[in-house]
Amino acid sequence: MISRSYTNLLDLASGNFPVMGRERSRRLLPRVMTVPGNVSEFDDDDQASSDNPSSVSSDRMIIVANRLPLKAERLNGTWSFAWDQDSLYLQLKDGFPEDMEVLYVGSLSVDVVDSHEQEHVAQILLEKFKCVPAFFPPDLQSKFYHGFCKRQLWPLFHYMLPFSPANGGRFDRCMWEAYVAANKLFFQKVVEVINPDDDFVWIHDYHLMVLPTFLRRRFNRIRMGFFLHSPFPSSEVYRSLPVREEILKALLNSDLIGFHTFDYARHFLTCCSRMLGLEYQSKRGYIGLEYYGRTVGIKIMPVGIDMGRIQSVMRDSEEEGKVMELERRYQGKTVLLGIDDMDIFKGINLKLLAMEQMLKQHSTWRGKAVLVQIVNPARGKGIHIEKTRGEIEETCRRINQEFGYHQPVVYIDTPISIAEINAYYHIAECVVVTAVRDGMNLTPYEYIVCRHGAKKSVLVASEFIGCSPSLSGAIRVNPWNVEATGEALNEALSMSDGEKRLRHEKHYRYVSTHDVAFWSRSFLQDLERICVDHFKKRCWGMGISFGFRVVALDPNFRKLSIPLIVSDYKRAKSRGILLDYDGTLMPQNSINKAPSQEVMNFLAALCEDKKNSVFIVSGRGRESLGEWFSPCKNIGIAAEHGYFLKWPGSEKWETCGQGTDFGWMQIVEPVMKQYTESTDGSSIEVKDSALVWQYRDADPGFGSLQAKEMLEHLESVLANEPVAVKSGHYIVEVKPQGVSKGYVSEKIFSSMAEEGKPVDFVLCIGDDRSDEDMFEAIGNAMSKNLLCGDALVFACTVGQKPSKAKYYLDDTMEVRSMLESLAEASEASNFSMRVLDDAL
């Protein structure tokens, strides 16, 4: 029985959102929606079309994040709001076109409890700041942000598994439902202001990972991007999350998914491969995932900083005398600087231990080097905050006591201004970042800009932070290795000024050209590129809850109508029917691969009609196919992708390949055996004309790697042999050149034309890549006049996916149903009586 909590989750995902607080009507917005109807009509989640012409032609960007880029304060009953100039979401506007309007959807950093006051605040923010606030009930806010986000997602994405309830907290279904409910609230706010045909939506960070499903469900063609600002863990860690597939599928409802580094993107792609069976492709420098006819782009671009903002604050700190004050305070000292949030993953204690190690091993720095460690307040009620703070303070006291009056560590845990932080950057000889896991960390970038006046800088950076790959001149360290990190600190302080200048110039060139505007501009350009075909395809949604996805297909690609094909079938005089076997007549996951009596009945009925020429065109061997279909004497069989062909009414097999020399098999089989022995779960299928290496049951990642290596190996050793080496879905196949389902299909049509029975009705059904050759061959047959000029062609693939066929049926059950309908419409058919006899 489904649990009540689970059914509630389905309600949330399907749009039946519970009312929170007392019901009130929505306010009227200054900008009307372009979808017909009132805003209130969008309280439910029924499918709404986004195909209506927009009333506004210019593009607009809607930025959706957990926090609005605003500072809010209430004094004496009056609200005061101002832009937060240090917010990334405000700064990224610099990369957009000047005429692009930007709206923000998010929550405030302060609570607004009263419903009337919420209306008042919302109106002010919309009119003056173009911001749409989302207000949470207190209990929902706690479970959503401090619960699921900070106690479950944040630790997991930073590689901390909940081995015990105290270590991060076990998965809590109630908190997950709160996360879904909060994402639903953000969705409702977006719906209030969106013009689905004109607007771009850019969603930010792990707080809103299921929001894309809600938006895609309402607006099938919405142009939507997502950027993850935290790490994405390896599949071995991520797969421990009970809602792993729900989150992956929700993210795949975006058009473009961004990550800071290739490692994060690679982990995401591996999860999609292992858990959803999706493979990515790289084309002309772009990475994409094919997902039900849509291409989901993968963007790898580390975020930058606002150069102008940093330089402006630096000038202010100099004018206020803060730089001179710090220079006097630390006169005669070499300053190492650390600036981190109070967080278990920032590695602050490891940094202090490395400083202690350096002073022990290199006594010349005692009394000369000082580590200034600035700790910003924790961003949330994360796990182990107080314990971490206690450990840091204890380590600072111990080190300072150990080295007496030198006081080598200055620990600052009180809030300080941005101007003062920049002043510390200015005087620091080296910045040290020892985070054990961090999504990006912009501290090194800010330091480089602030040190441009001195023209020299040096960085000691953890290899586990997102900015590390872009800082090739930094001294990279494994912060867990305290001794090596201590040596890196000594190396940084001992470095010559000339080398410091060279490293600084290299870093400054990168940071100044890859700023936040460059980052947002690049993301928008890729989003525009990947959405360019949105209105050229037919789109419809399918699936429930977080299994929802949009299928996007060519406008000429449509479901095969059984009444239509039956009507055309009855009028035809010469019919060619070509049927794949596995995945078409028989489900792929079937244990017993032999055809059922039901299949044999309608095939026999079709073959009895003299107007029909029915062929099974399969990759299977001729022995199994010949045995299975022996009761049906009038059926033709093309086995092993058409290498062997048996005509209807004949018992003789003929070969359609160019040669009969299979000496190459003695070269191929030892190679395949070698890979089979080293790849658990793989096997070799030996056919008369081909050898197939299958790795469907192997580890997906390793199997794919081995298949790629085998493909290159075989292409090398078979370069002078008359064979083709092909890779397919979990297979590598070696077969004679020129053998394909397309070739044998043309041969069948050509033979029928030569016999004076040119085909005026073609039905061709298949489900995989090899069947695409058949669909293509039909077009070639038409151009070669092998078919009647007015021939009716029904090329049909199984499943809704991109194909050269113009029709589709959903599954093998629909294929059987359609063929049964044709059998009943066949001349002199006793199909109904045969079915009745079997039932009796």
TrEMBL record:
Domain of life the protein comes from: Eukaryota
CDD domains recorded: GT20_TPS, HAD_TPP
Similarity remark: In the N-terminal section; belongs to the glycosyltransferase 20 family. In the C-terminal section; belongs to the trehalose phosphatase family.
Matching Gene3D superfamilies: Glycogen Phosphorylase B (3.40.50.2000), HAD superfamily/HAD-like (3.40.50.1000)
Protein name: Trehalose-6-phosphate synthase
PANTHER family to which the protein is assigned, alphabetical: ALPHA,ALPHA-TREHALOSE-PHOSPHATE SYNTHASE [UDP-FORMING] 7-RELATED (PTHR10788:SF116), TREHALOSE-6-PHOSPHATE SYNTHASE (PTHR10788)
Organism: Brassica cretica
Pfam families in the cross-refs: Glyco_transf_20 (PF00982), Trehalose_PPase (PF02358)
